[in-house]
């Protein structure tokens, strides 16, 4: 834990953040509406990026917590760390970024994020940081584009004006999408409009995944 405690987080520009994410995030893609970027530095070198921004599906997400205003929640769009940072760096960086948001953007009441258990992981980092699990959904949103063999999200396909019928004809990635929320404002938890799912449900369903590898299957 000694080296982990030496990691320093500070805001960085979008150009630097996006370049890092493209290199180190498993998807190789950035989220275009990310506006808040934290760089994780060790010995004055950039070794990680956490990018936050408005929720990709803001209209559908704002009602998750009753009474939330449009600028009172934020989404963790991307988190990417290189191979230099040691074990536990992810949860450490995530926890520090939450503290910085709480301090410098006090209007933010909660954070939404998703774990991609088709290509990456089931959200162990979120659970270690105190996020609540809200949804486990069989993947339908990520499908393989037959033109290039690469995964595409349904929202991206919409932005590219790909007809819904065409997109849904593509092969869906096997796995699940998990939704997590973190309450910076603890009072907001009282206004959550859905049930919290126990973490144990992930193992129960046999959908555990770590670093792109399935831990167990049905």
Structure notes:
The protein has 218 residues and is α+β, with helices and mostly antiparallel strands. The chain has a domain at 4-114 and 124-136 and 180-198: Aminopeptidase, CATH 3.40.630. It has helices at 14-24, 58-61, 89-104, 124-129, 154-159, 164-169, 200-204, and strands at residues 8-11, 36-42, 45-53, 73-81, 110-117, 132-138, 142-145, 150-153, 176-183, 209-210, 213-214. The strands form 3 sheets. Strands 1-2-3-4-5-9-6 form a 7-stranded mixed beta sheet, sandwiched between helices. Strands 7-8 form a two-stranded antiparallel sheet. It is globular and about 50 Å long. The N and C termini lie far apart (35 Å).
Q: What is this entry, summarized?
A:
The chain has a domain of 143 residues: Gcn5-related N-acetyltransferase (GNAT) (Aminopeptidase, 3-Layer(aba) Sandwich), CATH 3.40.630.30. The chain contains 7 helices and 11 strands.
